[in-house]
Amino acid sequence: MSITTEQAAAWFAERAKNIPIPETKAMFKIAADALKKRTPTMVTHEATKYACYTCPSCKNVVDETTEFIPGQKIRVQQQWCKYCGQALKWED
Protein backbone atom coordinates (compact mmCIF):
# COMPACT_ATOMS: atom_id res chain seq x y z
CA MET A 1 0.00 0.00 0.00
CA SER A 2 1.34 3.39 -0.96
CA ILE A 3 0.18 6.70 0.52
CA THR A 4 1.02 10.26 -0.39
CA THR A 5 2.83 12.73 1.84
CA GLU A 6 -0.42 14.68 2.18
CA GLN A 7 -2.26 11.57 3.37
CA ALA A 8 0.47 10.79 5.91
CA ALA A 9 0.41 14.38 7.23
CA ALA A 10 -3.38 14.23 7.58
CA TRP A 11 -3.12 10.89 9.42
CA PHE A 12 -0.65 12.30 11.96
CA ALA A 13 -2.68 15.49 12.42
CA GLU A 14 -5.91 13.52 13.02
CA ARG A 15 -4.24 11.15 15.52
CA ALA A 16 -2.71 14.09 17.41
CA LYS A 17 -6.22 15.38 18.22
CA ASN A 18 -7.10 12.21 20.16
CA ILE A 19 -3.90 11.63 22.13
CA PRO A 20 -4.22 12.51 25.83
CA ILE A 21 -0.46 12.59 26.61
CA PRO A 22 0.85 16.13 25.84
CA GLU A 23 4.37 15.01 24.86
CA THR A 24 3.10 12.37 22.43
CA LYS A 25 0.51 14.78 21.03
CA ALA A 26 3.31 17.30 20.38
CA MET A 27 5.41 14.65 18.61
CA PHE A 28 2.51 13.75 16.29
CA LYS A 29 1.95 17.45 15.50
CA ILE A 30 5.67 17.90 14.70
CA ALA A 31 5.53 14.87 12.38
CA ALA A 32 2.44 16.23 10.60
CA ASP A 33 4.02 19.68 10.18
CA ALA A 34 7.26 18.19 8.84
CA LEU A 35 5.37 16.13 6.26
CA LYS A 36 3.38 19.19 5.16
CA LYS A 37 6.66 21.06 4.52
CA ARG A 38 7.80 18.26 2.19
CA THR A 39 4.79 18.87 -0.05
CA PRO A 40 5.77 21.47 -2.68
CA THR A 41 3.65 24.61 -2.38
CA MET A 42 3.28 27.25 -5.08
CA VAL A 43 5.38 30.36 -4.45
CA THR A 44 3.53 33.65 -4.24
CA HIS A 45 4.39 36.72 -6.27
CA GLU A 46 4.55 39.84 -4.17
CA ALA A 47 4.19 43.20 -5.88
CA THR A 48 6.96 45.05 -4.11
CA LYS A 49 9.52 47.63 -5.13
CA TYR A 50 11.56 44.71 -6.42
CA ALA A 51 9.56 42.00 -8.18
CA CYS A 52 10.05 38.97 -5.99
CA TYR A 53 8.56 35.63 -5.03
CA THR A 54 7.91 34.67 -1.45
CA CYS A 55 7.51 31.44 0.49
CA PRO A 56 3.82 30.65 1.08
CA SER A 57 4.60 29.48 4.62
CA CYS A 58 6.94 32.08 6.13
CA LYS A 59 6.54 34.91 3.55
CA ASN A 60 10.32 35.40 3.16
CA VAL A 61 11.76 36.18 -0.28
CA VAL A 62 12.83 32.93 -1.96
CA ASP A 63 14.05 33.95 -5.40
CA GLU A 64 17.59 35.15 -5.90
CA THR A 65 19.53 36.48 -8.85
CA THR A 66 23.05 35.34 -9.66
CA GLU A 67 25.47 36.87 -12.12
CA PHE A 68 27.32 33.99 -13.83
CA ILE A 69 28.45 36.16 -16.72
CA PRO A 70 29.21 39.85 -16.04
CA GLY A 71 26.13 41.90 -16.90
CA GLN A 72 23.79 38.88 -17.22
CA LYS A 73 21.69 38.14 -14.16
CA ILE A 74 19.88 34.83 -13.85
CA ARG A 75 17.01 34.19 -11.44
CA VAL A 76 17.60 31.10 -9.32
CA GLN A 77 14.48 29.15 -8.34
CA GLN A 78 15.20 27.32 -5.11
CA GLN A 79 13.54 23.96 -4.39
CA TRP A 80 13.32 24.64 -0.65
CA CYS A 81 12.85 27.79 1.41
CA LYS A 82 16.14 28.43 3.19
CA TYR A 83 14.30 30.06 6.10
CA CYS A 84 11.62 27.50 7.03
CA GLY A 85 12.33 24.43 4.86
CA GLN A 86 9.06 24.50 2.89
CA ALA A 87 9.28 22.65 -0.44
CA LEU A 88 8.55 25.12 -3.25
CA LYS A 89 6.73 24.74 -6.56
CA TRP A 90 7.34 27.34 -9.26
CA GLU A 91 4.95 26.14 -11.98
CA ASP A 92 1.59 24.39 -12.06
Write the topology of this structure:
Elements: H1 5-17, H2 22-38, E1 41-42, E2 44-46, E3 52-54, E4 63-69, E5 72-77, E6 88-89
Parallel strand pairs: 1-6
Antiparallel strand pairs: 2-3, 4-5
Helix pairs in contact: 1-2
The count of β-strands is: 6
* Helix/strand class: alpha+beta
Q: What are the low-pLDDT stretches, counting only 5+ consecutive residues below 50?
A: none
What is the H/E order?
HHEEEEEE
Number of helices: 2
| Spatial order of strands in the largest sheet | 1-6
Helix fraction bin: 25-40%
For this entry, give a set of tags.
single chain; 92 residues; alpha+beta; 2 domains; two-stranded antiparallel ribbon; 2 helices; 33% helix
Write up this protein.
The chain has helices at residues 5-17, 22-38; strands at residues 41-42, 44-46, 52-54, 63-69, 72-77, 88-89. The protein has 92 residues and is α+β, with helices and mostly antiparallel strands. The protein folds into two domains: 1-39; 40-92, no CATH class. The strands form three sheets. The protein has a two-stranded parallel ribbon with strand order 1-6. It has a two-stranded antiparallel ribbon with strand order 2-3. It has a two-stranded antiparallel sheet with strand order 4-5. Helix 1 packs antiparallel against helix 2 (22-38).
